[in-house]
Amino acid sequence: MGKRNNSQRKENVESPRKEISENEACNMTEKEFRVMVMEFIHRMDEKINNLCKNQEEMKSDIATIKNTMESFNSRLQEAEDRISELEDQVQKQAQAEQQLEKKIKKQEESLRELRDNMKRSNMRIIGLPEGQEEQQGLENLFEEIMTENFPDMGKIKVTQIGLGTNMNLNRGYGGAGSVGSIPAVQVKQSILNPLKLEVNPNIQSMCNQEKEQIKSFNKFASFIDKVRSLEQQNKILMTKWNLLQQQKMTQSNMDNMSQSYISNLPWQLRLMLKAEFGNEQRLVEYLKNKYEDEINKSTEIDNEVVLIKTDVAYCEQDRAGSHLEGLTIEINFYRQLYEEEICELQVQISDMSVVLSMDNNHTLDLDGIIAEVKAQSRSPTAASQG
Length: 386
Prior knowledge:
By secondary structure, the protein is mainly alpha-helical. 80% of the residues lie in helices and 2% in strands. The protein is built from six helices and two strands; from the N terminus they run ααααββαα. A two-stranded antiparallel ribbon has the order 1-2. The radius of gyration is 70 Å and the shape is rod-shaped.
């Protein structure tokens, strides 16, 4: 395109030269020639201005191309950063998988500990056959234990002084060791008189034995309460164990699902990375093609700039050549004029010499005549130059 435009411009420049040189150069006056030269110069100035504008537009296009190239480079940098971020995410996911495996191992260890605790809590009391308390009941078991440990407990009776009441110990030894309720007593003045009482040492020993038996019985009652609490805890632990077994069954499904999900994660991640890599490759190829197109455009623009410069130089050369031709034509015209004037002056001088030769008898002022002739010869040359 640039070479074609250059050839068209050269033809447009050369066509007026041919027309001027062939058709109008001979018949053109000086004013018409000067007007034509001025119009030609004006047209050349307009062309030069247009070329300058085109150069500025090309410079702006080159600047935009550079900006687009910088944006492409920035996008490539962003793509590289994104790839590095994806690699970091892959590493983080691998670390998360390792942490999940550690958590699963910890949960398995905690389940083992719970199983061991459940096995440890299944305690057996020595001396009591297992399962017999459910058949006989706690009251019968208590009576058997009491008869084995305290055979004389039901036969002992305590006689209080001044009350005359006998109380059976089997009735009030359940929890706090109380003897019985004391009825209201009316005190008489005769009773307040000092009496001589003899204390039986057997009664004192019996009281001490009774206190020790009450203490041991309280200990045994607390032991039975502990056994009941242990039975309740055992039932609670059994219910917990059943719940944990049910949870374990559901957790096994969750483990399979989590393992399948974890096993599918690398495959999904590979697919995502392949898709991202394909997109980035397509983007890079697109950017490379665009970069090559822009480089080709820039080379074309540089070639056009070079052609424009050559066109400008050619126009300047053509303008100088046309100006030189005009000057040579003008010089030739003035030279012909000068030669014709010299011929006329020579003819006039020859005529005057003839007249002088005919008038030899008269006295003439030759110096004045020569000065007048010179003045007359100078006046037409000055008029022609003006």
